[in-house]
C-alpha cells in the first residue's frame, strides 16, 4: 500500500490538490466572511458568494460600479522649511495664492534636520502648477521639484473619507484602495457592488464642504457674512428627516467649546445672528422671514452652502431668534440644516448628513475611468462565460480525440486539464479573489496551455513505438518535461508585467494564468505522466 | 471517426530561401500595414475607448418601455441626434444578449465641454426607453497613461522572453529564430486587427502577451527536438511538428470557439482575446514551420560548420 503510494506520489499529489480544492470550494468554514474584505458591510465581502460554492464574483459578474481616478493637486517635494513649523509654511504659501483658501494648502514635515524639509501640496483645482511654484518662491521657500498629485497623508485621509461616505450611505461590500501604476502615479480605486455609476459618483465626487452664511438685505444692497459656521463646527449630526410642512432637514448642533478666552463657534453664530438682526433694523421680533430667492429677501436669511454653492436659504422662527439674540441658545446649540421642500431636497439632506459625518474630501478626484455593470447583466455574463468556457473545453476535447483516437490517452488528458481548472477555482476561493471576465479568460488560457503540455508529454512518451519499460518511459518523460518547463517559464515571464502594471482587470488574467501554469507544471502535468505510465507500461 | 494526421512536409524540396520568403513577406506586409496606419491615424492600430478615452453604454430593453431590441426603430432611436447630447461614434447590436453597445468618442464632445465629461448619457438613454445595463467612461488623459503602460508591458514581456530564450539555448541562430517568429506572431495579429476593424483594447494587449507565451512553446519544442536530440534533422523536425501542430491547432480550436461564443453574447473582452490568439497562433504555425525550420536547417547544415 505504502509502496504504491510512493510509486504514484504524483497522482497522489493531484488527488490531494483536488480534495483540498473541494474542501475550500464547498466547506462552509471557508465561506466568505461577512465584511472581511469590504468595509463596514453588514453582509457580503468584496464580492458576493453565489451560495452554492465559496467562490466570490467581481463587479463584472455581479454588477456594480468601479471608479479609478487620481487625486487632483500638486505637491512640491523637498521644500526647505527653514525652521518654520508645517502649519506656518502652509499658511505662508496659501497667503501668496489669491484664488484659494488656506485649507487647500498643506505641508508635511519629512525630515526635521537642518530647519526641516518636507512636502507642500495644494489641493485646489483652481491653482495651476506655475501659480503654485510662484507662490512657494514668493513665500521664500526653496523646493526640489513639483509633481502632480497629493501627498501620501492626503491620499490616505481621502481614502478614509470615501470609505466613511460609502459606509454612511449604507452601501455594503464597497472597497476603496490605492493603486500605483508603473509610472509611479497613484490612483484611488473604488468598487461598490450593486450601485450604478451616477449614484456612486454623486456620493463621492462631491467634495462636500458644508458651511452657513448669513445674508443681510441692506435695503436691496445685500451682503453676505460668509462662513459663520463651517464644516468642523458641526457635531451630533443626525440623519436626514422630514419636519413640518414636508421640510427636509438634518439635525445638527454647533460646537460650544473653545480654548480659554475665545468665543465658541456657537457663541460666534449667536453674535453673527445678532449683528445681522441689528444691521437689518431688528425686523425679526417674530423671526426672520426669508423669501424663496434670498437675494430678494427683505429680512436676513441663513444660507446653506455646499461646495461653494447656495443649496437652500431659510429664515428662523421667533423663539430661535430670540434665544440667539439673548445669548441663551449656545447652552443648547441645536440646529436644523433645512434643505427645503423641492424635489430632491430629502436626498440633498441625506447627502449633507453623509458629508458632515464622513468629513469633506481632502482632495478631489480627477479624470479617471469608471465602469458600471447592472446586476442582471452581471448575472447574464456569469451564464455566458460559463457556456463559453464549457464550449471551449469541448473544442479542446474534440480536437484531442480526433488526434489520438485512443481514449486511454485522450480521456485522462481532458480530465487532467479540467482538474487544473478545478484546482485553480479552489485557489480563487481560498484567496477570496473575486472572479471576473478577465479571470475566466485566464482559465480558458490555462486549459489551452495545459492541454498543449499534455500533448507534448503524450507524444514524447509514445514516440518510437510502444513503451513497455518504466525506464524508457521515465527518460522520455524527463525530456518532455524540459520543454514544458521552458514553455512555462516563458509564459510566466510574458504575463508578469500585467501583474505589476495597474491595467485594471487584466491583473486577474495574469495572476490566474501564472497560477495555472504553476499548478500545471508542479502538480497536474507530472500526474498525467504517471497516469499515462500506468495505462501504457505493463509494470 | 476521421483522425487528424499531421501531414509530412517534404522540406527537402525547397531551399531555405524559398521557405523563408513566405513568412518574411507576410511580416513585411504586416509591418507596412502598421506603418501606414501610423502615418494615417497617428497610432499603429485603432485604439479602443480604454486607451483614447471615451464612453460606452450597454443598453437593453426597459421594463417601462415597449421598445423592442433588434428592431429598426430601436436603432433609429439610438442614432437620432436628439437622443444623446453627444453623437455616438458607433452603435453595435448584440443578438445573443439583445443588447446595444453604443460608443462615444471624446472628439465628438460638444465645443467647450470639459474633456472626459460625457454628461448624463446613461440618463439620456433611459429617457429614450432603454435600460442601462453597463456603462464605461474613461477620460482621455487617463487613457493615454494606460496606453504607455500597456506598450511598456508588451515591450518588457517581449524582452524578458528574449533573454530567457537566449539563456536556454545559448546559441545565437536558434535563439534569434524563436525571437523573430515571436515578434512576427505579435505583429501579424495587430495588422489583421486593423484590417478587420477590431480595436486595440486591454483584452487584446493581454492576448498579445499570451501569444508571446503560447507561440514560444512550439518554437522551443522544435529547437529542442533538433538541437538536443540525436538523429536526422528532418526526422527531428517531423517529430516536433507532429506534436507542435497538434498543440497549436487544439489551441486555435479553443480560441475560435471562445471568440464565436463571446461574440454572440457580446462579451468583448473574451471575443478579442479569442480572435487575437487564433490569428496569432495561425501566424505561429507559419513562422515556426517555415521561418524557424529554415533558420535551424541553415544552422544545422552550414552554421555549425563555421
Automatic annotation (TrEMBL), chain A:
Q: Its GO CC terms?
A: plasma membrane
Residue stretches making up the Protein export membrane protein SecD/SecF C-terminal domain: 369-523
The record's Gene Ontology biological-process terms are: intracellular protein transmembrane transport; protein targeting
Indicate whether Transmembrane appears among the record's keywords. yes
Query: Keyword annotations for this protein?
Result: Cell membrane, Membrane, Protein transport, Translocation, Transmembrane, Transmembrane helix, Transport
Which subcellular locations apply to this protein?
A: Cell membrane
Matching InterPro entries, A to Z? SecD/SecF_arch_bac (IPR022813), SecD_arc (IPR024912), SecD_SecF_C (IPR048634)
Specify the protein's topology with respect to the membrane: Multi-pass membrane protein
Q: Where are the transmembrane segments?
A: 384-402, 409-431, 437-458, 479-500, 506-524
The family note in this entry says: Belongs to the SecD/SecF family. SecD subfamily.
NCBIfam families under this entry?
PRK08343.1-1
* Subunit structure and binding partners: Part of the protein translocation apparatus. Forms a complex with SecF.
Role, per record:
Involved in protein export.
Entry protein name: Protein-export membrane protein SecD
UniProtKB/TrEMBL annotation, chain B:
Q: Could you mention a single GO BP entry for this protein?
A: protein targeting
Q: What is its main location?
A: membrane
User: What residue ranges carry the coiled-coil annotation?
Assistant: none
Pfam families linked: SecD_SecF_C
Provide the topology term for how it sits in the membrane: Multi-pass membrane protein
GO CC, alphabetical: plasma membrane
Compartment list: Cell membrane
- Spell out the InterPro entries in the cross-references: SecD/SecF_arch_bac, SecD/SecF_export, SecD_SecF_C, SecF_arc
What does the UniProt keyword field contain?
Answer: Cell membrane, Membrane, Protein transport, Translocation, Transmembrane, Transmembrane helix, Transport
Function field: Involved in protein export.
Q: How does it assemble?
A: Part of the protein translocation apparatus. Forms a complex with SecD.
What PANTHER family does UniProt report for this protein, alphabetically?
PROTEIN TRANSLOCASE SUBUNIT SECF, PROTEIN-EXPORT MEMBRANE PROTEIN SEC
Q: Which family does it belong to?
A: Belongs to the SecD/SecF family. SecF subfamily.
> Under what name is this protein listed?
Protein-export membrane protein SecF
Amino acid at each position: 500500500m505504502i509502496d504504491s503510494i510512493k510509486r504514484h506520489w504524483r497522482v497522489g499529489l493531484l488527488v490531494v490538490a483536488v480534495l483540498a480544492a473541494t474542501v475550500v470550494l464547498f466547506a462552509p468554514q471557508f465561506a466568505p466572511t461577512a465584511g472581511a474584505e469590504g468595509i463596514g458591510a453588514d453582509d457580503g465581502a468584496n464580492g458576493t458568494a453565489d451560495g452554492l460554492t465559496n467562490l466570490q464574483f467581481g463587479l463584472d459578474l455581479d454588477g456594480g460600479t468601479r471608479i479609478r481616478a487620481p487625486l487632483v493637486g500638486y505637491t512640491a517635494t523637498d521644500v526647505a522649511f527653514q525652521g518654520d513649523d508645517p502649519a506656518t509654511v502652509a499658511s505662508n504659501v496659501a497667503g501668496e495664492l489669491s484664488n484659494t483658501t488656506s485649507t487647500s494648502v498643506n505641508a508635511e514635515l519629512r525630515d526635521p534636520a537642518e530647519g526641516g524639509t518636507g512636502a507642500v501640496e495644494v489641493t485646489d483645482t483652481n491653482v495651476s502648477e506655475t501659480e503654485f511654484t510662484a507662490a512657494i518662491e514668493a513665500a521664500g521657500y526653496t523646493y526640489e521639484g513639483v509633481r502632480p498629485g497629493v501627498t501620501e497623508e492626503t491620499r490616505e485621509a481621502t481614502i478614509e473619507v470615501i470609505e466613511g461616505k460609502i459606509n454612511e450611505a449604507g452601501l455594503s461590500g464597497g472597497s476603496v484602495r490605492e493603486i500605483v501604476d508603473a509610472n509611479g502615479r497613484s490612483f484611488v480605486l473604488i468598487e461598490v457592488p450593486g450601485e450604478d455609476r451616477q449614484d456612486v459618483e454623486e456620493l463621492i465626487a462631491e467634495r462636500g464642504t458644508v458651511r452657513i452664511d448669513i445674508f443681510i438685505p441692506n435695503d436691496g444692497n445685500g451682503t453676505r457674512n460668509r462662513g459663520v459656521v463651517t464644516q468642523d463646527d458641526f457635531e451630533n449630526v443626525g440623519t436626514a428627516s422630514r419636519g413640518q410642512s414636508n421640510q427636509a432637514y438634518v439635525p445638527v448642533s454647533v460646537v460650544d467649546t473653545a480654548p480659554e478666552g475665545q468665543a465658541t463657534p456657537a457663541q460666534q453664530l449667536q453674535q453673527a445672528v445678532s449683528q445681522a438682526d441689528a444691521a437689518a433694523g431688528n425686523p425679526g421680533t417674530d423671526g426672520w422671514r426669508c423669501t424663496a430667492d434670498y437675494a430678494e429677501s427683505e429680512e436676513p436669511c441663513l444660507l446653506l452652502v455646499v461646495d461653494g454653492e447656495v443649496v437652500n436659504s431659510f429664515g428662523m422662527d421667533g423663539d430661535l431668534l430670540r434665544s440667539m439674540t439673548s445669548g441663551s441658545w449656545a447652552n443648547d446649540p441645536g440646529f436644523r440644516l433645512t434643505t427645503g421642500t423641492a424635489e430632491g431636497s430629502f436626498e440633498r439632506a441625506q447627502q449633507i448628513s453623509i458629508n458632515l459625518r464622513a468629513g469633506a474630501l481632502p482632495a478631489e478626484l480627477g479624470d479617471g475611468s469608471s465602469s458600471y455593470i447592472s446586476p442582471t447583466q452581471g448575472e447574464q455574463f456569469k451564464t455566458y462565460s460559463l457556456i463559453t468556457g464549457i464550449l471551449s473545453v469541448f473544442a479542446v476535447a474534440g480536437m484531442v480525440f480526433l488526434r489520438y483516437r485512443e481514449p486511454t490517452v485522450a480521456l485522462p488528458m481532458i480530465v487532467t486539464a479540467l482538474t487544473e481548472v478545478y484546482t485553480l477555482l479552489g485557489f480563487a476561493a481560498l484567496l477570496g479573489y473575486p472572479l471576473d471576465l478577465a479571470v475566466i479568460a485566464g482559465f480558458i488560457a490555462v486549459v489551452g496551455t495545459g492541454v498543449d503540455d499534455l500533448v507534448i508529454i503524450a507524444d514524447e512518451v509514445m514516440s518510437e513505438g510502444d513503451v513497455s519499460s518504466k525506464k524508457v518511459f521515465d527518460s522520455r518523460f524527463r525530456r518532455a518535461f524540459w520543454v514544458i518547463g521552458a514553455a512555462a517559464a516563458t509564459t510566466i515571464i510574458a504575463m508578469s508585467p500585467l501583474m505589476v502594471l495597474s491595467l485594471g482587470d487584466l491583473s486577474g488574467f495574469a495572476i490566474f494564468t501564472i497560477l495555472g501554469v504553476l499548478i500545471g507544471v508542479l502538480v497536474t502535468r507530472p500526474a498525467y505522466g504517471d497516469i499515462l505510465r500506468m495505462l501504457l507500461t505493463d509494470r | 471517426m476521421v483522425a487528424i494526421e499531421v501531414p509530412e512536409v517534404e522540406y527537402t524540396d525547397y531551399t531555405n530561401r524559398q521557405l523563408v520568403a513566405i513568412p518574411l513577406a507576410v511580416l513585411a506586409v504586416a509591418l507596412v500595414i502598421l506603418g501606414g496606419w501610423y502615418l494615417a491615424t497617428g497610432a499603429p492600430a485603432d485604439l479602443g475607448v480604454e486607451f483614447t478615452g471615451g464612453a460606452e453604454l450597454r443598453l437593453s430593453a426597459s421594463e417601462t418601455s415597449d421598445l423592442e431590441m433588434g428592431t429598426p426603430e430601436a436603432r433609429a432611436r439610438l442614432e437620432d441626434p436628439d437622443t444623446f447630447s453627444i453623437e455616438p461614434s458607433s452603435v453595435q447590436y448584440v443578438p445573443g444578449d439583445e443588447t446595444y453597445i453604443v460608443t462615444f468618442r471624446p472628439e465628438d464632445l460638444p465645443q467647450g465641454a470639459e474633456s472626459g465629461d460625457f454628461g448624463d448619457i446613461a440618463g439620456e438613454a433611459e429617457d429614450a426607453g432603454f435600460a442601462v445595463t453597463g456603462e464605461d467612461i474613461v477620460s482621455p488623459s487617463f487613457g493615454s497613461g494606460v496606453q504607455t503602460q500597456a506598450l511598456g508591458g508588451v515591450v518588457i514581456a517581449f524582452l524578458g522572453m528574449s533573454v530567457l530564450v537566449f539563456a536556454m539555448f545559448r546559441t545565437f541562430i536558434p535563439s534569434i529564430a524563436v525571437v523573430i517568429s515571436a515578434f512576427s506572431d505579435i505583429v501579424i495579429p495587430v495588422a489583421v486587427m486593423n484590417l478587420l476593424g477590431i480595436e486595440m483594447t486591454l483584452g487584446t494587449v493581454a492576448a498579445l502577451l499570451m501569444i508571446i507565451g503560447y507561440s514560444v512553446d512550439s518554437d522551443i519544442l522544435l529547437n529542442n527536438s533538433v538541437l538536443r536530440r540525436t538523429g536526422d534533422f528532418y526526422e527531428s523536425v517531423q517529430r516536433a511538428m507532429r506534436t507542435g501542430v497538434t498543440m497549436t491547432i487544439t489551441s486555435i480550436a479553443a480560441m475560435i470557439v471562445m471568440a464565436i461564443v463571446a461574440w454572440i453574447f457580446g462579451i468583448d473582452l473574451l471575443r478579442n482575446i479569442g480572435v487575437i490568439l487564433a490569428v496569432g497562433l495561425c501566424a505561429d504555425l507559419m513562422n515556426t514551420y517555415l521561418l524557424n525550420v529554415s533558420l535551424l536547417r541553415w544552422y544545422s547544415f552550414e552554421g555549425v560548420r563555421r
